[in-house]
Amino acid sequence: MIGWFRLQRLRNALSEDQFTGPIYFGLWVPAMCSSLGWALSDMADAVVVGQRIGTVGLAAIALILPVYMINCMFAHGLGLGGSVRFARLKSEGKEAEAKECFAQVFWLTMALSVGTAVLGTLFLTPLLAALGTVPGDGALFEATRDYLRILVLATPLFYLCNVLNYFLRNDGSQKIAGVGSVVGNLCDITLNIVLVLGLNMGTQGAALSTALGQVITLLFYAPGLLGKGKLLHIRFPGRGWLHPAFFALVSGLGTSVQYLYQMIFFLVCNNVLIRLGGETGVAVFDVIQNSSYLILYLYEGTARAMQPVLTTYHGEHNLDGLRRTSALGFGSGVAVGSLLIALIAVWPRSMCLLFGIAGSAAEPMAAFALRVYVLGAFFAGLNILLCNYYQSFGISQAAFVLETLRGGVLLLPLTVICAQFGLYGFWWLFPLTEIGSLAVFLLLRKMGRYQVPITDAQRVFQRTILSTNQDVGTVSQDLEGFCERWEATMRQQFAVTNAVEEVGLTILKHGFHGRTDGYIQVTVIALEDGDFEVHLRDNAVTFNPFLLETERATSAEDVDFDALGILMLKKRAKEFFYHRYQGFNTMIIHL
Questions:
Q1: Residue partners of 353: CB distance under 8 A and separation at least 6
Q2: Within 10 Å of residue 75's Cβ, how many Cβ atoms?
Q3: Where in the chain is the domain with CATH 3.30.565.10?
Q4: Which of 155, 244, 284, 502 is the most exposed place for a label (fewest CB within 10 A)?
């Protein structure tokens, strides 16, 4: 009964919030499309190469996975760590610093990726030996070399696609990010069919299709770097840029370190499975690995949609928005992930058909392994959402601990332990790892660790104005009491209430143009240093009150009192900032 009442309160709160739903789902839908495209693209190589070349091609792709994981670790670390800082600076109105943040991360991305490409090309044969194949292996060595050579040369493209995708979504260009990813991945899949199946180019064709897909993705991303009103512009950063850029990378590694653990796991797992089940065991693991792309990428897409909203709301001290975004994010992620998990659990043969093992001796084992794996995938999804939740607030240590638990501390020992129970017992390592990691992390959080630094709710005033001058007056009166409670001076009290009145009335008159379905969200924070910060968000047409023509405010013949009020507000404010965020006007005034 208590849980029912809590659910009702949450539903009521969500129904009152006019912004969080549109903002979140405006990011979530493109993120889901991108994730599905990435999943299909990652699966395409295995499906197409396996159909054409067989086990040699699949083995070659499996051998280069450690290189792919290392690239993912740095690319996603730079993208996530840099974009979180970028979004926080932007939400605080620090536009110049946000631009500098992007420039710093962009050039560190170029330096690391180009350096990796050069070293990988120069030492290609030793790298292949480290991965497990030498010239004496014949066809396996040649297939792996052909794939890896192109993969190494395309490293800068891979880094840029991932880093720019993070930043574009945090700069309000989520549609560009989504469309670019989907089109690029569809081209990758199409080129795989043409080059591998049509032209018989083998693993070289598979790698080339991936590289060309990334080139196409970058072409679609270009408008997000050139459009007006955007903060993402390629320019050289200022002096001392390297340290903050590396700090962004280290922050992002809290989550992306999972790829390092996956690299180690692949090496250990392949060795164990060859001993337990030979080719059958490895084939089943390939099916599990590729199925995981389809499931877990949906959770990762949800996490990517949550992050910009959580980071922005945190910078705005929007406590209700944070709670509602978390509810929407975890709810939508679990819903879509659970649907796919249920389909695979009920019909595991679908995955066997996709990868060509239906009807073979491996199918019964694969069906059992898939059903056990998807049990763990449900909890893996929760862990992914939790990691990115903490990363959104810059608490990289919490994300690092959870990823370390599920990617190393529990996964590797359980791999060895479960192997002692034979091939059927081996697959239980997946649910045991994910459930155990979540349980340990929740225990640590219950002990008081990894708490999100949230502003005291008593210091936050939040109301919604519904398209009427009367609402502006009512909110202004309530705001006076809030300012008095926090011992604001008469000058501060007048400045804060006047800011809400002037901007609110100006938006009603010039932004809504007579509409009656408009609304303005007002958030005022009593800062620890005695200052006050006003945040306003509205659903009017694109309209910046601070650009209202102020020349007429001083005209003796035709005085514009709206412009006069805004002019006086700009003089009183310590800082003021406007930007169009996810289809809404957003303003910050520091008094």
A1: none
A2: 25
A3: 457-590
A4: 244
Q: How far apart are CA 565 and CA 552, in angstroms?
A: 11
Of the candidate ranges 191-205, 308-322, 561-575, the one whose mean pLDDT is the lowest: 561-575
Euclidean distance between the first and final Cα of the chain, in Å?
45
User: What 3-state DSSP class applies to 6?
Assistant: helix
The full length of the chain comes to: 591
Q: Structure tokens of 403?
A: 């990823």
pTM score: 0.70
- C-alpha to C-alpha distance for 584 and 18, rounded to whole angstroms: 11
**Superfamily of the domain at 457-590:** Histidine kinase-like ATPase, C-terminal domain (3.30.565.10)
Beta partners for residue 538, in sequence order: 520, 585
As given in the structure block, the two tokens for residue 456 are 């005291």
Residue 113 has pLDDT above 60, yes or no: yes
pLDDT tens sequence across 224-238: 887 666 677 778 888
Q: Name the nearest CA neighbour of 32 among 329, 401, 387, 394.
A: 329
pLDDT tens for residues 316-371?
A: 778 788 888 888 889 899 999 899 999 998 998 888 777 777 777 778 888 898 99
* Stretch 553-575: mean pLDDT: 65
Residue with tokens 């970028």: 86
Cβ–Cβ < 8 Å for 500, 524: yes
- Other Cβ atoms within 10 Å of 265 Cβ, number: 21
